[in-house]
Amino acid sequence: MREAPVGQRCPECVKGENRTIRQARTIFGARAGVATAYATYSIIGINLLAYVVELVRPEVVNRFDTLGTGLVDSAGSYYVDDGTYPGYRAIGVLHGEVWRLFTGAFLHQLPGNGFGLTHIVFNLMWIFTLGVFLERQLGWARFLAVYLIATLGSSAFVVIIDPHQSAIGASGGGFGLAAAYFVLTRKLHEQPIDRNRLMLSFVLWLVLAAGITSWQGHLGGLLTGAVVALGIAYAPRKFQTAAQVIVLAVVTLVLIVAIAAKAAG
To answer: Is residue 128 domain-resident?
Structure first.
């Protein structure tokens, strides 16, 4: 028996009543009060692990970057795909290497190339800054869906617009998180990070990086993240989870169909 304000209660009665208490949730449907952003930390950890692998084996970049189409010879050298040549093998997403749609998003420029170490530092800084807040609002499953679908959108834009140009980096997913942040905070009427400072930082990052990294990937991630976040934020409360799943599935399907159409054409 357990002490109660009046008399005693049996443990089974207490458990039964606890099961009937509705758990608090955020307006986006996630369980409220989650303190640790496990998905955000996992994304950061995978990126760091991949970077260590790059430092040890730099050739993994060419094998797993986001590339629509390219050629490789028997010696492992890579070339632009401008036709069919004997002894060369076609590679890239448009030739069935669909894993590149995601693996390239976990690779970053090595020291001495492009932005070098700052490439991964800036990307992971923004993923942490935005991810912790977003994951607490969305829950790990919705948050991970937003990030991965934004990454898919980023890669789709690269493959469709400029299939001969390879791209790497988590910035596509990062821009998707930025778009989701603006959508969700507008719904919440809450600004944990100054909106103007955040907007200025991302516009500068987009403009400055355009000449070195993939503007197509940034734009694809930004637009995809915005569409997905709008679907999550403004889903009807009565059918919230079902409506959110439908939005996520439809956006994913549209991106897959667009990539398939590019491959077929």
So the answer is: yes
Identify any residues that bridge with 31 across adjacent strands, giving them in sequence order.
25
Task: Provide DSSP, the chain.
Answer: -EE-SSSEE-HHHHHHHHHHSPPPB-TTSPBTT----HHHHHHHHHHHHHHHHHHH-TTHHHHHSB-S-EEE-TT--EE--SS--TT-EEESGGGT-TTHHHHGGG--PPTTSTTTHHHHHHHHHHHHHHHHHHHHHHHHHHHHHHHHHHHHHHHHHHHHH-TTS-B--THHHHHHHHHHHHHHHHHHT--SS-HHHHHHHHHHHHHHHTTTS-HHHHHHHHHHHHHHHHHHHTS-GGGHHHHHHHHHHHHHHHHHHHHHHHHH-
The secondary structure of 14-61 as a DSSP string is HHHHHHHSPPPB-TTSPBTT----HHHHHHHHHHHHHHHHHHH-TTHH
Residue 11 lies inside a defined structural domain of this protein: no
Task: Express each pLDDT in 109-149 by its tens digit.
Answer: 999 887 788 889 989 998 999 999 999 999 999 999 999 99
Please count the structural domains in the chain.
1
More confident residue, 195 or 183: 183
Give residues with Cβ within 8 angstroms of 185, minimum separation 6: 191, 192, 195
In a domain, 167, yes or no: yes
Domain extent, residue 197, equals: 37-264
Name the token pair of 186. Answer: 């507008």
CATH of the domain at 216: 1.20.1540.10
Q: Is residue 12 part of a domain?
A: no
Assessment of whether the complete model's pTM goes beyond 0.85: yes
